[in-house]
TrEMBL record:
Protein name: EMARD protein
Domain of life per record: Eukaryota
Annotated source species: Lanius ludovicianus
PANTHER family cross-referenced by the UniProt entry: ENDOPLASMIC RETICULUM MEMBRANE-ASSOCIATED RNA DEGRADATION PROTEIN (PTHR31701)
Domain (DUF4209) ranges: 131-211
Amino acid sequence: MALSDSVTTCLSQPVHYVICKLGFEKKDTYDINNILSGNGEVCWQSLAEHVCYLESGQSVDYIKSIRSLGPVCESVNLYFKSLTKEQFVIQYASWFHWTDSTEVFLEVFDVLQYTQATEVALGLMKLTSCLERALGDVYLLKGDDCPFLLRDLLASDQLADVFGQAVMNVLKVFIGSPYGLNLRNVLWHGFASPQEIPAKYCAMLLFLTAGLGQLLQAYLLQTKYVLVHRPYVIFISLEELDAFPDLNNEILSVAEELVKQSSFVLKIMLPFWIAALTAFKQNKYADSVILLLPQLEVGLRLLFTTTNKCPNRLLTAESSALYTTFDEMLAKHLDNEEVNQLPVVLEEPSMASDFLWDVLNHQEGPRIRDRLSHGEINLETFPREVANQIFGFAITILYRFSDEDTFSLKEHMVIKPLMNCTSCYRSRFHPISRLKKQVLECMKSIHLWPELPTVPEEQVQMIKGLEGNAEVNTLILMISETISQLQHYMPQNCCSSDDLINSVLTERLLMELCDTRICTLYSPRPVLEVVVVLRKISTQCHQVSQQVIAGAGLRYTQWVNKTLRSRQRLNYLRMLNSIKFLSPVLQLILLLITLELVSVHSVCKKNPFDYQQYLKFLKSVLQYTENLVTYTSPEKNKWDETMELTNKILIKIRKISGRKLMLMHLAT
């Protein structure tokens, strides 16, 4: 029997007891009228009396509190079941407006009427996500930087000032504290199966959210504060996530069979997988991803704990230890410094890990799980494109851990396009990948310069006081000499001895160099430090290009309209003169960035070196580009100084080129 069949719970014995049994020990019936006033308002004082404290008097005794609140939660659940949807909306809908997600809470009420376990769990995940976001908005009434973790948010003085400490202690019994029920974490991290989450706790959190809305309304009336909701995160450049083809009905039908057979799926979690696929087919993309992500985590956790021989880590950790989550499972080493074996088991370790890092962890990536679980995304407009990519990845994992002999040739052919995508995937949101993208975007910008409108050469010659052609020619010669030194480290047949600048400094060459495959997984710290500087240099180069394009266009219009004063005309012509060397200089820097990116990564992998001196040189190039941004700005227009700066940096580049070439040589 596969291990995924034998697992009966992912909750440790103490956590299972707290969630599934503790709140059911008191059998007495609780009168809902004790915590509900005649006009439907929550009586927080009566609720707070059920929160017990340790002998110190300040810390919550979570075990006693959960036991005491158990009958109260059951009473709330039965009360909600007794209401019609219309009654609930009339009585409570306005109390959810403070969350900016009223519809989500009304949906949770609908779910509670039927008590379908998977739907209750989904409702609870959505409820806690929206509640956390709303509490963060309230926090910002009195604080500046909202805590990232729910635990820290609930423990903040700011929320205690608004709602009262006793109210916050009631909340902490259910969410946010590892010592309490901790419902948000056990669900979002994939530890709880559908049958292990009592519906009465979902009902209670719905009730408490309405009660918080009542308290907040009174607070806002008293203080005259205005609650402002932070804007939702909007996914942009969705095409960058495009790794897998669109999932059609044929692929989804095969996926339904894979879910039932794959050893990646814990059988106790099967209802979640089926519900996720169903939601996807029903165009409920946020729901589908909310259901799927915890299952990817628990499936990978099963592989992680099996391959690294630490089966106890499959279960929820106690409050004194950490959960085994995505971050640890994707790390290079375990906490005992041994090498993590999970990537090896995934067969395409770079693809699987790179994809997961891209969608979950990289700061410039979509960070889908973080943003969904913390309520930063509008659930109603969650894009199909994002859900499609996560499901595409999930299907490849399911297939990889299935018995191929049980599938027909047709089913193999249906899945084949997805599997082909895994072998060619490259990280899109790793800093190295972002640097490549920056370089190419900057090069495209610089290649617009020849199309800029310019003054006819004969008019330029008529202007007295304009000098510098000799200096420009000297700079261009220095650029050619530097390119000549570098050409041994570039692809063959890309250089023409007759015109090194125009034959080498091309978008095609940079695209070819950027297409060089670099393993971004587990990049050494020296590489990342170098990449940070290289990205800053690229950003400054792009800024210079944009300023030149804007400035040249404006000045040409003013020239044609004869609105430039004498000094402005002269400065404009100096600008045109400077463009002759600035364009190849910026392109040379982009070429150096790309060559260094490939070489420094290889050198660090093979032969760690003293990169501090190397960083020092790169920072001098950064200083040059920062000064360029200043001198080429509309406010400064210091073109003679730009020429002097460029002369100095080119001398420095040539002087240090021997060391740089040694670095590149080490890499080849």
